[in-house]
Each structure stands twice: as structure tokens, then as C-alpha cells.
Amino acid sequence: MGTLSASEEAQIKAYLQDAVLSCTERCLYQSAKWAAELLNSLSTYDDSGSDTEVDSPMSDARPPPTPTPLVPKDPTEQRLEAREAHKFLLAKTYFDCREYDRCAAVFLPSALPEGALHTSSSPATKSRQSVKGKAKAGTPSKVKSVMDVVHGLSQKALFLALYAKYLAGEKRKDEESEMILGPQDGGVMMNKELTGISAILEEWFDNLPTSGRQAQGWLEYLYGVVLAKGKNEKDAIEFFIQSVHYYAYNWGAWQELSSLLGTVEELTAIASRLPQNLMSFIFHVHASQELYQANEQAHTSLSQILSIFPTSTFLKTQRALLYYHTKDFDEAEQIFSDLLKTDPHRIDSLDNYSNILYVMDQKPKLAFLAQLATATDKFRPETCCVVGNYYSAKSEHEKAVMYFRRALTLDRNFLSAWTLMGHEFVEMKNTHAAIESYRRAVDVNRKDYRAWYGLGQTYEVLEMHSYALFYHQRAAALRPYDPKMWMAVGLCFGKVGKYANGIRAYKRALVAGSYYDAGVGSSFGSGETGLGGGILDPDVLYQIALLYERLNDMPECAAYMELVLAQEEGPEIDEFGGEVVGGVGVTPTTSKARLWLARWEYMRGMFQKAMELANELCQDGVEVEDAKALVRDIRARIERERGGG
Amino acid sequence: MTMSRYLTPQKISLLVLVNLYCDSAPSTATIPILSFILSHIIPPTPSNARARHSHPEYQDVSFSIRAFEDVLQGHASNMPGRTLLDVFLKQMWEINSFDALHNLFSNLGDLLVRTREDGEGEAAATDRIFLSRTSPLGAFVRRARLEFMRLQFHDAMKLWGAFINYRAPTAQWTKRVAVQASSGIDIVAADMGLGPEDDLFQVAYGHLDDEDANGEAISIDDFDRLLEFQLDQLQRLGCRVPDDMREQLHNMLGPSGVVLRQSHLVKFFDAWKAGDYTSAFDNLHRYYDYAMQSREKIHYQYALLHMAILQADFGNFGEAIAAINETIATARENQDMTCLNFSLSWLNHMSKAYPKQMKGAGYMGMLGSERDGLTFLKAKAKETKMYNLLSATLLNEAKLCMATGESIPRALEYMYQASHLNVRENISNYGGQMLLQSTLYSRLGIMHLSSVYCELLLHCYKDSSPVDEQIRAICRCAFAATQSGRYTDALSLLEKIDSSSHRTLKFHQYIFHCTGLIKLRRAIRRTDWVACDHLLSSLKPDSSTDPELTFLLSSARIDYLIARGRYPDAFNSIEDLSLSLKEEGADVLQRISMLIAKAKLSAVVGKPERGFSVALRAASVAFKTRLMPLLWTAVGLLSNILNSIGEFGAAGRLLDAVIPQTIEHTDFSLTAPLYAYLGDSYMGLAGLEDVSTSNGARERAKKVSMAEVYIDRARECYRRIEDVEMECEHLMKKAILAKLRGDEMLAEEWSQNHNRRWDECKERIGEE
Hints:
The complex is a heterodimer of chains A (645) and B (768).
Chain A: H1 6-25, H2 29-40, H3 58-61, H4 75-83, H5 85-96, H6 100-107, H7 124-132, H8 142-151, H9 155-177, H10 194-211, H11 218-229, H12 233-246, H13 251-260, H14 264-271, H15 278-290, H16 296-308, H17 313-325, H18 329-342, H19 350-360, H20 363-376, H21 381-393, H22 397-410, H23 415-427, H24 431-444, H25 449-461, H26 465-478, H27 483-496, H28 499-519, H29 538-550, H30 554-569, H31 573-576, H32 588-604, H33 607-620, H34 624-644
Helix pairs in contact in A: 1-2, 5-6, 5-9, 6-9, 9-11, 10-11, 11-12, 11-13, 12-13, 13-15, 15-16, 15-17, 16-17, 17-18, 18-19, 19-20, 19-21, 20-21, 21-22, 21-23, 22-23, 23-24, 23-25, 24-25, 25-26, 26-27, 27-28, 28-29, 29-30, 30-32, 32-33, 32-34, 33-34
Chain B: H1 9-22, H2 27-41, H3 66-72, H4 84-94, H5 98-106, H6 136-150, H7 153-167, H8 175-181, H9 187-191, H10 199-205, H11 207-214, H12 220-237, H13 243-256, H14 261-273, H15 277-294, H16 300-313, H17 317-334, H18 337-353, H19 355-360, H20 370-384, H21 387-403, H22 408-425, H23 430-443, H24 447-460, H25 467-483, H26 487-495, H27 505-525, H28 529-538, H29 547-564, H30 567-583, H31 588-604, H32 612-624, H33 628-644, H34 648-665, H35 668-688, H36 694-720, H37 724-741, H38 744-767
Helix pairs in contact in B: 1-2, 1-4, 4-8, 7-11, 12-14, 14-15, 15-16, 16-17, 17-18, 18-20, 20-21, 21-22, 21-23, 22-23, 23-24, 24-25, 25-26, 25-27, 26-27, 27-28, 27-29, 29-30, 29-31, 30-31, 31-32, 31-33, 32-33, 33-34, 33-35, 34-35, 35-36, 36-37, 37-38
Domain Cdc23 (chain A): 11-320
Organism (chain A): Zopfia rhizophila CBS 207.26
Region (Disordered) (chain A): 46-74, 116-138
């Protein structure tokens, strides 16, 4: 993308400014916040005027750039909006006071039609008539009257009304779901407003070509949300794509779209259909991050956008998350830490930060983070997650669960809380609750590999390996370069007796492991991937060896055992130029491998080799008893052979 | 901000200290450190064995960190060259993040002795001290850990903030700590390169500065203990909450929004003692409403009991009786013997103290006769081992013995039993016993012993006895001083009573009446009628006044009427009073006093013979019941009658017999008339002598001079008690005697003396 020219930049500014205003008008606060943040992180923002001069008379001389020339308005809509301006203000205040039903009732009659309705008899002329005589309400059919009212509204008003209705339904659903993990929780309760809203919107879109009105993108966005809620994901994606075509700066639409994408393939499939602009570029970066595509390309794209918006917290967070996905915790931590310093009151995505600190076992810092978050807002799901993570790190699982529950009470769709709560339940040996928590996490977001993995683990605890296998495969599909996932898959295959599959899975783990190992550091992508490249995980090798043993492929098994031993020393120094410090040293796994080898050599009659290995074992001080017994046996055999010979 | 339940920065510091102790503190410091810790974590048991001021620091739950300095500074640690304070501060500053605080609590378990489940195998019994789970320290440690577990995160955060504030002053105490503390309060923030001016730092710790003003870090647990202490003081001593304390309590309660049940109870007692009937009621109800909410119904009877006492205290006997009856019924129902016995005892006491009012309110007696009641209570108290009640009942029995005029030895026996119980069971009922003993001796006419008991109470048991009893003792001392004419001393004694006592309505009234009574008596003797009228009008007793004082006031009024010469009024008053005393079965002392007053009245009106039978009866009863002062007065009146019928010799003999005893009693108002009567007797005897014979003339001269001696003595006594009229009368007598001797000059001198004295007194009254 490169640097932008002044005019391009001004354009972006205007668009973003307009986006903030439009989103705020429609009460899409999160999107508005996102756009405003982005607007303020433009590189040259500071150059155009320092904050201290705002009050000086100079600021009057430079009026703020008005977006009107850049974002043309639809005259029909403007006329309608102007006419209902006062009612719109009323509705908006109701919305701001969280009186959603009342807000919806300002524009819509209280009784919405049930189910889909097919009144195709409202052409443009008719709608104009009803605009004039709305108060008469003398139309014969009730359904018709509703549709007449709807057509008489501007898109903005209709969006606000329907959105309020939608939120009222969501609120009621949450209320009726009662306790987290209670009997009413989970798919039992539905948002009862959905049918009504979708009926209206469907009708509206049916009439769109004939009514002569121009789509603005907002209603499409809302319809997409409604469709997604109704599990009608294909159509939802269609509408979201339409929506971003009409209005690209509604971040909410992009976000919904990315949450509907399950795989990278889906992303590439729709990529061509998206408008080519800045927003779609940001979307691409975000979606790849969500899909764990932490490769070179993602980083370069991100760097490009960051050059335009150098101080954007959102983009920096994306960067940190990319590092997190590649297990480069130090980098990620550093970015988050800097973010915290520049914006101390920001709570967004602090839960991710707390995950990183948890993994790094930095308890004091985690506590500090929890303190910060609590000081800012105790009742944000992110805060609760941070605190829950802290308690989890301190092994106070009951309290951790309490905080995750609180997070979920605040927001039932808060993904990480579900997953983390699952982890806590596993710790507390409450497998049923753990499974339910993980399941809910997966329901919220099918891309959460940790939840899939957790599900697999839990089923493994329950000794249901073939069942667990499915979940591990899902996790491995989401994270093809994470050896942990493949190891779990391999383990399950081994348990259910599919040794060949198991070996293949383990080999994948080896590949993935060496990939990541090489990926750490600056030489990204230059590392040679493949067997014997870097240090291989001895555990994996050992497992492979054991599986070969099961298959009675003894030479192969012995070869892998040798490989395990080889990891003690590590690869030759000259290959990596001293970058790699050395092997893993003596570990219980390598010792086990050594013992196995010693026995195997003994069985083969290679007593000298066996003796050597057994003595090494004695030196290392692991499995000494077995080693000594073996040594005795070997001596006895040697003696006997000598005696015999 | 809300109050924490249990944990405070002080407690955290104590935990650090416990840690230090367990890490083998040097032996010299062990005892001071342990006693310091224990004095803060264990509520003191109220006992008389230890004086309350032996642990003054207990009062201050929110002790500052300076307290640690005072304790620790003097002791060397096992690291050479460092005091314990250094080590302590080092550990305090090692808590350099919330996580470290968390670790402090989660590691507390290591201090405890390993149980079997934990695996005893660890032979890590080096030189560390392990705490038993049930030891005071162990219990403290476990409670602290539990409470920390229970804390929500933001509460824990608040605790952390409070701790930082609490620790802050120590940063500069020693060089070593200063180095350690220079890295700031939070190591994480320091690692991130944050200074106090950074925004992020402000988010995390900005609120700390604001909380400085709040200052007091006190937990609900501490507050509970504080209120418990206040209640104990209020209930035991019957005083009010001091003003400054009330201010502090208010400040502690005010911002927190936490309202504890006990605080209502404290308010209730305070309002009650202040005489604020409405708010006392309000608070009592409020307290028990909240008590109900938290516990079972067991509080109900106590609520009723309190209400009964409150009602009675404000003179509403009808309601009081209704309440106490219900109390008794409820207590019976709930098998609450303590409450039942206490209610019965109280009822018994009330029916005795306010018989008229109780009868008027329809109380018929719950336990049959009074004696039966006491016997029943005694048996019950013994049965249930309520020694407090037993001791009180024994004293009541002794009182009853005295009031009905039964044998004094028995009364003494009861008292000694009670005293024995008090000592053996460590009941702080000394006040009542001392007062009763003092009463007994004053009735026996041994005034100085009576005073000694009062002073004993004031000097030795002041701290443990209720304010009420202290005031009574002081008033009794004041009355004793009046007897010997030391009015100013008496009044200054009363004035010296701590002004805080006046804040309680009852005490104020009592002291006011006593002062008034003393002033009235003085005024009567000084013939200061204006003052008398004024005092009498302000000293009208009502139903809630102490019955004893009511009697004294009435008799003082009768004295006044006699002194003013309003004899019919006086007679009517005496009649009324003796009638009502008879009705309510009052103390025998009071009834005899009335007989004597009647006899005195007839003597004053110039017809002493009329009072003969009355005086004789009074004398005989007083003798039987060993009411010596009354006996002496009655004998004096008898001898006056004998004088009036010319039996001078007999009168003289009678008086000779009693006067020495009265002198011992040091009551000049009692001795003076006796001397006067004796003088009269001698004059009468002198008149009987035949002057014609030289022997007779000599005898007469001798008797006259004897009479003069006694008249002089009587005059001296009257002068002491400032009885002007009588003093002048005796000056007159002296003048007449001089005239009789034919010494006109002397007579003139005496009569001038008389006039001068009279004028002096009138002048003084005018001046005052």
C-alpha cells in the first residue's frame, strides 16, 4: 500500500469521521469507537494541529474538514430523515437509556407480524401514499399497515427501531437463560424478536429494487446479524458482503463477517468478492489473525497498515496476537505492555494479555494487570477474565471459576471466558461442567482451537479416546503448525490402535515443532523444516518409537530411539552457526529411550553396546536400579559365553 | 468505601511478625513479641484480677505502624548488627506487589504443624517454630488465611492499597529500608519504568492519595470488638459514651455504610442513659429487629427485658410490668433460666424499691411474699449456678432483714456469704455489698465505719463498680460530712463528681437532689427562709425519684415546717407520710423516724407530754431493731418529757447513758439537743435544791454550773451545725444564767453576744 498522499489521507479522515457519526447515530457504539480510534491514530494527525492550540483563536481560522462532499447523501433518505428528525431524537434517547422496546415503538407499531409475510403488493406509489396518510391507519389488513409504516421510514430510523428490537430480544433471552450453566442456559432460549425483524427486513429487501431507494448497507448488516443468529450463515455472509459494499466503514459488519469464516479457504473464497479498499485490507489482516495465519505475509500486511495508522491500538493488538499465535510470548508481552502504558484505561483485549502472562508465569505482572483492570472497571468481562486468570495461576480454581462466571453473566458470548472456565473445571476434576463450558465456547466461536483441544483432553480423561480424537483433529486443523495438537491426535490414534495413523500424526508434530522452533527469532522462514533440522522433541520421537514397537517394526523403532538420544547433544553446531545452544540434555524421556536401547541391544546380543548404554544410565543417575540389573545380566551372559566359548 | 470484614494492614503486619517469630526469633525478644501479637489478636477477657489499664494498647485497634517500631527496636536479630526492626521492615518491603501479598497469605499454611494428611514425613524440623492449629497464633493465622481466601479481588485490592498506605511512613526509617523502598511500592510498576506521574501508575495507585484522608483502617471484626467493649462499659458501669468516643464511632461508621447491630445497641444505651426516651426506644427496637434477622428467636425475651427495664426507668410502671411478665413467660417457654431468674430478681427488686408505684400499676406479686420470693430465687440461683444472682439475692435478703428490723447478726451473715461468693466466683458485686455494709453500720450508729466502707468502695473498686454505686457512695460521704456540720466539704464533694456523670439523666437527678437536700438542711438551720422556699419548690420528688431520697426530702420538708412554726401543716405532713409508709410496708427506720418527728413536734409546741407514748414506742422499737441513732433521739425526747414533768434525775440518768454513744456517732444535730436536755435536767435539779441550807446552795451552784457546762456544749454543737436559732437560744440561756448569778455585766455581754450572732447570721443570709 505504501504511504498515502495528502488527498488520500484527507479522504480516509473524512470517511472515518463520517463512520463515527453514522455509527453513533445508529447506536453502534463499538463500531463507532473502533472508527474513532483509528481516526485518531493516523500518522499525520499530530502534525495538523497540536492539542494545546485548540483554544487559541487560530483554531477558528481552520474549520474542520466537512465530509459532505466526499460522502454523498441520498436525497430521498435525507428528505425522510428531515421529516422524522424529532422522532428520531426521541428514539435515540430512549435507546441510550436502554429502553429498547420503547425506542422501537417510536417508529414501529407494537404488534409485529409473526412469521414471514409475502405482501408483494406495495409498489413505490403505494408507499408514498401511505407516507402521507400514516396517521389514518385505515388500511384493511394489519400486516399491510405495518409494511406501510416501514416503507415510510428512512433507513436510519428503520435500522434504529429494528436494532432496538433485536437488542430487546437479546436482553430478554439473556434474562430468561437465568444462571450460567443453569438448566435454561444454552440453546433453550431463543431471541423471540428475530422472526419479526427478519420478516420486515425480508419484505424490505424484496421491495428494494422496485421502491427506487438506494441501499445504505446498514439494514443489510442488521439482516446479516439476524440471519447469522438463525444459523443461516451462507445468506448472512452474502448480506454482510453487500453491506460492506454499500458502506465500508462499519467495522461491525467486517467483524461479523470474519466470525462467520471458519477456515482460510473460506476467507480466500470471499476475498475476491470484497471491495478493494483500506477497510477490506484491515479485515484481511484481522481475519487471518483470527484464523491463526501467523505467517510472514500477515506480518507484512500488518506493517503496511501500521505505517498509515502508527498509533492504532487495534492494529498493535493484532500484531501482539500474531506473536502470541506463534508462541513468541516475549514480543507479544512487550507490545501489550507498551499499549498499556500509552492507554492505561483501555480494557479491550486485556484478557488476551492476561493469557500471555499466564503462560509466561509472570504472576506479579498478572496481579498488576488485574489491579489495573479492576481499578478501571470491575464489571467488564475482560476484567473478570484477567482476575480469573490470576486466581487460576495461584491455583485458586473455585475463585477463578467465580470470576469467569461473572464474565459470562456480563456477556454470554464472551468466548475466552467459556474456554478458560472449561480449563478450571478440568483442574477441579469436574469433567461434565468442563465439557459443557468448552462446548459453549465452540458454539460461540468454532475457531477456538483451545476449546476443541480442551474438549479432547477432557474426553481423554474420561477414557473416551476415539471420541476425543475428533476434537483433537478439529484443533489440529485449526492449528496445523502446533505440535501439541498433533501430539494429542497421535496419542489418541495410538490409544485406539491405529498405530500407522498415530505415527503419521506424530511426524506432523515433529514437522510443526521444528517449524516453530526455527520460526523463533529473526530468521523467519529461513529455517530448514524437516526431520533432523533443528532440535526435535524427544518425547514425540519416543512416542513414535513406541508405536513402531507396537507395529513390530523393530529396526525403525530402534532408529527413532537413537534419534531420541541424538537430541541430547543437539544438531551439529556449524549448521546453525552457534545460534542453537545445544541439545535438551538428559531427560527422563531420553533415559527411557536409552534403557530401551540397552535392552534391545542386549536382546540382539550386542552386549558391548548394551553395557555401554547401561553404564551411561548409571552415570546419569536415572533408572539406576534397572540399569544395574541389566548390567548384571549382561555380565552374566558375557561370562557364560566366555565360559561356553 | 466499605469496611473489610477482618483483615486490615495492621493484621498483615502482625502476620509478617508472626512469620518472623516462626523463623526463630532470638530468645530475648520472644516474650515481648508474643505478648505484643497476642494483645492485638485476642480480645481481653474482662476480669478484675488484672487491672484494665495493663494493656492500654488494646483500646486502639487502629494502632499505627509506630507501635511495631516501639516493640521491635530494642531487640537484636540473629543477624549480627541488625535489630529486629530492620528484619521486620525488610520483610514488610519485600511485599512489593500484590502477588507477593498473595504469596504471604498462601504460604501461611507452612507455619502450621503438619497434620497427618499433609504427610508428617518431612523432617524439616530444623530451628523453625511450627504453630499448632489450635494455638492462639495458629488460630489467628488460619483465620487470616481463610479471610483472605474469601476476599473478592477488588476487596483484596483495597486491602493492598491500605497496606501500602500503612507501610508508607516506614520508608525512611532506616537506610537499608530506604534503599529497598526506593524501588517504589510495586515492583511490577518499577520494572515497567513507571513513576508516580505516569498515567498508568495513576490508574493503579492514584486512589491511594485520596484514601489518606480516610485514615482509619479498621475492619468489621475490629469494630465489632470495639462496640463489644463499649457495650460492656455501658452495661457494667451504666455510664454514657464519652463525647470524643462518640465522635470517633460516628466517623468510623459514617462513610462505610456498614451498620452493625451492636451500634444500635450502643446508641440505645446511650440514649437511655441520656434520658432520651423516644430514641432509646427506637434504637432498642431497631437493634432487636436486626438481631432477629440474623439469629433465632432467642433474643426476644432479652428485648422484652430491656424494654421493661427501660420503661421502669422512665417511670412507666404499667408498661414495665406488662413487658416483664411477657419476658418471664417467654423465658419459661424457651427454658432460658438465666433470663427467667434475672427477670424475677429484677421484679422483686422493683417491687421493693417502688412499692407504691408497682402496686399502682397493678402488680400483685409474682412469688407470694417477699421472703418466699427471695428463698425461691436463692434456690434457683444455686441450682443453676448463677452466682451473680445468688450474691445479689443474699444482699437483698440482708436488706430485707434490716428493713423489717430483724436480727442484725443474720443480716451480717448474709452479707458475709455474699462477700465470700464475690471473692470465690470473682463476681464484681462489691459495690452493692459495700454500700449495704455502710448502711448497716450507720444504722448501728458507728458512723466512721460506715464512711470507711464508702471510701473503700471509692478507692478500691472504683473501676469495676457501676457509676451509680459510686455516686451513691459519694453522696453518703457528703451526708456524713453534713452531720458534723461540714456543709462546704459536703457540697464540694458533690461538685467534684465527674461532670460526665451529669450527662446521664438519672445520675444528674440524684446528685441534684442530694445537693439540694444538703443545702435545704443548711438553710433551715440558718433560718434562711427565702432559700428554703426556693429549694423546696425545686426539689419536688416524683415517682421516678429514688425512694430513699423521697423520704429524706419529705422529712426535710417537715423539719422546715416545724422550723417555720407551721405546726398544723407539719402535723398533717407527718400523718400523711407515716400512713403511706405503713401502707407500703416501708423500712422500719423510716417509720420510727416519723414517730420521732411526731414526738418532736409535740415537744416543740410546748406539750412534750403529749408525745410520751409515741416517743416511748419509738425508743422501744429502735432498741429492738438496733437503730441506735433513732434510739438516742427517742431517749432524748423521753428525757425531755421527763424534764417537763419534773423527773429531772431520771432524765439526767437516761441522758448520761446515751450521750457518750452519740458522741461516737459524730452527729452534732443528734448530740446537741441531748446536751440541751441534760442542761435542762441540771437546771431542774438545781431548782429542786433547797437554797436555804449552805449545802443546798452549794449544790445548786454546782448544778447550775454543770448546766452551764452542758448548755455551752449544746451551744457549741449547734454552732457547728450552724443552727442559728438554737445557738442563740443557748446564748440567751447563758445570759439568763448569768443574770441568775447576779452578774449583770456578764448577762449583758451574753445578750449582746446573742444579738451580734443573730445579726451576723441575718447579714450572711442577706449577703448570700
